[in-house]
Amino acid sequence: MHYLDHAATTPVPPEVAQAMLEALTKDFGNPSAQYAPGRQAKGIVDRGRAVIAGALGAKPEQIFFTSCGTEGDNWAIRAALHQNRRVGRHIVTTAVEHSAVLQCVKQLEREGYSATYVKPDREGRISAEAVLSALREDTAVVSVMLVNNETGAVFPVEEIASELKNRPVLLHTDAVQGFLKIPFTAKSLGADYITLSAHKVGGPKGIGALYIGGRANHTLPLLFGGGQENGLRPGTEAVAQIAGFARAVELRMARREEISSHLAACRDYAREKLAAIPELRFVGPAGAPHILSVSLPGYPSQNIVNELSGKGIYISAGSACHRGRVSHVLSAMGLDRRTAAGTVRLSFGPETVLADIDALSDALLEHKNTRFPML
Ligand code: PLP
User: Fold this and answer.
1) What spacing in Å lies between the alpha carbon of 8 and ligand 1's midpoint?
2) Could you tell me the distance, in angstroms and rounded to a whole number, from the CA of residue 37 to the centre of ligand 1?
3) Which of 67, 81, 277, 320 has the greatest number of CB atoms lying within 10 Å of its CB?
4) Which of 218, 198, 348 lies closest to 271 in space, CA to CA?
5) How high is the pLDDT of residue 319?
6) Quick check: 205 and 198 in contact, CB under 8 A?
7) Which of 243, 176, 172 is nearest to 213 (CA)?
8) Mean of all residue pLDDT scores within the chain
9) What is the position in ligand 1's atom list of the atom closest to the CA of 208?
10) Whole-structure pTM over 0.90, yes or no?
């Protein structure tokens, strides 16, 4: 098979599966229990937290495990609004966020908050000026993603953070697609909340982390219950998931530079190969190394995805989270209907080989030559 959808989710390396298996079978104790198996499990949670913190250059006590990136996004935005409740009830975000942010903000609007959705330019870029000019006296929170999951565009979170430093506005960034793909630390980004998700970096699904640092304090608990995660996100810890997340991060950290250049080499090779297909258009700016968005204008992307899937080549039509719907990202970019409808996303991982890209390029060329545009 030719798996080219690493931005949707990633294969789990055997070492990660092994770490999880051990946590499930050998270290099955409840981390809150005061006897040896409990302490053993607690050790896994503590080490996991230290690994994630290390990868962000943060302190372990600034890392809170969540059940996924979606949870981290929702929690961060609500916690920031709660902390800044005396500042106001206005949120600034972008029109191209993942639905984990967009739908959360839409719900907050239904609850009486107001929001401004900053539009990207035609290439899918968001400028710091556009975000800053959306600020109002009553803006409490800014939420801007680090890397867009459909186009790979990298947004200027650092610049926004340094401009917000002297204003009472908290900054959240969804770094799910940026983590271990582009270099950053919690300090270099300067955001108060940073969302991560394990399954985009070789870890298991169902575990993520939220960094809470910078000016964030008095954090609103996500749930109310026991004392886990410092009482802010109670619930018995997902020990095996945490073990897998940490192992995945260790593996990627150990080969960080090599993986980055491999991803960039895959993207550049794909650009070169695909440029030979007449009519094919590249969508979005040169951004994070693992994502390349392309369009065959007029050829419905779902048909392309289905046909390639029949050949064992797996890519996604826009964002995997928006199956069947016209992508809000491509519409916000103002792409014409034919280009937007024909857009597919290719995304690469450490396991990608150039033969995967050759297979994809041949299949796209054949699709174009044997199918008529339908739009
Ligand atoms: N944010 C971005 C940018 C994503 O790409 C995703 C997953 O597609 C998420 C958030 C949600 O993460 P999770 O699947 O862990 O809920």
Assistant:
1) 8
2) 33
3) 81
4) 348
5) 47
6) yes
7) 172
8) 95
9) 15
10) yes
Cα–Cα nearest to 286, from 190, 94, 148, 120: 148
Ligand 1 mutation pick, 70, 97, 145, max ligand atoms within 8 A of CB: 70
* Residue entry with tokens 């545009």: 373
Taking residue 191's Cβ as centre, other Cβ atoms within 10 Å add up to 30
CB of residue 203 inside a 6 A radius of ligand 1: no
pLDDT (tens digit, 9 = 90+) per residue, 183-216?
999 999 999 999 999 999 999 999 999 999 999 9
For atom 12 of ligand 1, which residue has the closest CA? 69
Q: Whose CA is nearest to atom 10 of ligand 1?
A: 69
- Tens of pLDDT, residue by residue over 12-29, are 999 999 999 999 999 999
Per-residue model confidence (pLDDT) at position 71: 98
Q: What is the mean pLDDT of residues 163-177?
A: 97
Total length of the chain: 375
Kindly state if the Cβ of 143 falls inside 6 Å of ligand 1.
no
Distance in angstroms (rounded) separating the CA atoms of residues 198 and 218:
26
> What is the mean predicted confidence (pLDDT) over 133-162?
98
pLDDT at 374: 79
Pocket probe mutation, ligand 1, options 147, 176, 210, max atoms within 8 Å of Cβ: 176
Return the residue whose CA atom lies nearest to atom 7 of ligand 1.
8
